[in-house]
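ugh ok fine here u go
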Amino acid sequence: MTARDMKVRQEDKSTGSNYLKKAADNYDQMLIAFNASNWNAAATLAVQCAISSADAICVHEKGIRSISQDHFDVCDLVAGLHLEGAGEKSRQLRKVIARKNLVQYECRSMHKDEAGDVVKITTRIYQWVREALGS
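structure:
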């Protein structure tokens, strides 16, 4: 699927910082939850942080964000950015979003190692976006 086939919303590029603020809020709370051994909350917040980070960079760079029901579509938008590391961050984002179903909809709880992986990957995505936005 190409970016033009996806459901996207046009946004003013200056609003990218608003999505970064949401990502920052989720990032801070993700770390608090992880340090409190609250693995489910940490992973849920990691997913939200990663998606808001992706929205921030897509809006900042292209003035669009995904509004698709398929959260993986945002990975394709990130991959299409003309930024160093965009392909790698898209793959990392895909790994985080793949955990969304487990952490939010299945009855099994996250384990420390699983939550740790999601937090680590999300941190890389978030820091890359912060750097790209000059924050």
